[in-house]
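Researcher: We're teaching a course module on how sequence relates to structure. For the next exercise, students receive a sequence and then see the predicted structure as tokens, so they can try to spot secondary structure elements on their own. Here is the exercise chain.
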Amino acid sequence: MEKIYGYARVSTREQNEDRQIIALKEMGVPEKNIYLDKISGKNFERPQYKKLLKKLNRDSVLYVKSIDRLGRNYRELSEQWLLITKEKGADVVVIDMPILDTRREKNLLGTFISDLILALLSYVAETEYQTIHQRQAEGIAAAKARGVKFGRRPTPLPSNFQDVYQKWKMGRITLEEAAKECRMPRSTFHYRTKRYERENFQK
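Model: And here is the predicted structure for the students to work with:
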């Protein structure tokens, strides 16, 4: 008797997995057999996915909502597809792409067609991923060229920083004494003075 499982993944803890879970349940996957990872697709160090793989065998059917839930690029998708379908002997059903259903056409032609479509979809997914990241990089570069600054804003300087800085530059107090007056570690005071000088004296 076949046992059905479902796998869902979201890339960050802020993303919502409800859409995937609903789709899996609609296919008849019991909630206790749904494995969910909230982790980046950069690698396969996924605890729930690893638990799932241990359950799969020739009597198993694995449902995923879309093929990119199994991996980020062509190499990863191909490796996982082969692992599940060849090594584990389980069937895979991609809900958003009904033609990717290994239960259909178990003959050589059916397997060839499934593998061919997988390769095409994987290539498209990887190309789209690279295009998105290229556009992000170009957008960041263009924003930096316009003077947009990224990252966290530094904490405001203490009100006495300028006076302490002047005393330190004139040699009236040591670096350690200056840092103490500003209630900063020495390294932080030194870093903030360099930044202060760049912003005020090197324009």
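Model: If you want an answer key for the exercise: Residues 108-145 form the longest helix (38 residues). The mean pLDDT is 81.
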